[in-house]
């Protein structure tokens, strides 16, 4: 039978499962044949029926060989072998043909299982936009959806609402008065604040890919070169990562390296696992619902720049806006609008004043937050280290330090089934906010 299977003109096993192909042709045939087929030697004293594996319509089936078909006519009846489907269609199965028994070192690999870019099959709660170039975090407590939080919408409202009034009323008024420096400076700071906010919301905070991602993309060597250690601990930890907490090398644990039970990798000092985004993040500071993302090694610069620029923007916009709202020009404009609308828009102006007061309170809180992070930068601490009194083992700075490279390739082709842990079901994927506009599916 092995000789019949080796004849590639008659049998081309292209869609068989891996566990059958690895056993050799004879074992695969016997395993897939219905009971009673091929056992004629025991019943009638005849030789075993020879079968071959043939490809038909994208399936691998068992068929009697030509010699066996001719010899079967000598019996009492024609021995018919029912087709046994050994594999699925090529659209569903990743085929890797291992050497059959007696074939030597010949090997043929055919990758026909559909693969997706990593950003489309990302196993945690992050959401990718613009074909993997941008990403945002997940929000489990204060989110409208998994990737859109209420605090983040409030931040955008507090920035865009007063700035819209400023550029609609105050900006042209100052230009007409011949004052160019302040409105242009305000415009520049506004662009900086929105740019830093977008960069913080939509950038990689320093995610360390989990074990399944590392194995599926084959980036273990690149990670070791970038981080200086083997995140999989392949010399001491089993391939599935089980019980890895007790098998991390002593030379790593003595320097602050820890085992992540969720990602099943070794993470460096100051890295931590974010429960909201479900990732390990380098130099993890905190998960910020106001930016809907983690704040870590690769976006802390953007976060501090955002806090600084939004504070400067509030100093430039709010006083001038309040001055203009109390000016004679604005009162004349309000009187003209009331005359045209019979006073129906007057409550709107009171609502604007109330919103301005709330934005003023938010500005004071932003100032407190800025002072707090200036203290953390001066003492070389992160938010988590300060709150839990965790010492900075390596005394590395938080702001004046390199961002480092991205540790995963969002465009690497992977099989989504390789990213699912064997001991858990895949997490549900709720619809993303503005999915019609942003989704890459």
UniProtKB/TrEMBL annotation:
Compartment(s) of residence: Endomembrane system
GO CC, one annotated term: Golgi apparatus
Chain positions covered by the region annotation Disordered: 1-48
Pfam families linked to this entry: DHHC
TM helices/strands, residue ranges: 153-174, 180-201, 302-325, 348-378
Membrane association type: Multi-pass membrane protein
Sorted UniProt keywords: Acyltransferase, Lipoprotein, Membrane, Palmitate, Transferase, Transmembrane, Transmembrane helix
Domain of life the protein comes from: Eukaryota
Gene Ontology biological process terms in this record: protein targeting to membrane
Keyword Membrane set for record: yes
Enzyme Commission number, as recorded: 2.3.1.225
InterPro entries noted in UniProt: Palmitoyltrfase_DHHC, PFA4/ZDH16/20/ERF2-like
Catalysed reactions listed for this entry: L-cysteinyl-[protein] + hexadecanoyl-CoA = S-hexadecanoyl-L-cysteinyl-[protein] + CoA
GO-annotated molecular function: protein-cysteine S-palmitoyltransferase activity
Residue ranges annotated for the Palmitoyltransferase DHHC domain, each copy included: 257-387
Compositional bias segments (type: Polar residues): 1-11
Biased composition (Acidic residues): 39-48
Keyword Transmembrane belongs to the record: yes
Domain remarks in the Swiss-Prot or TrEMBL record: The DHHC domain is required for palmitoyltransferase activity.
Family label: Belongs to the DHHC palmitoyltransferase family.
Protein name as catalogued: Palmitoyltransferase
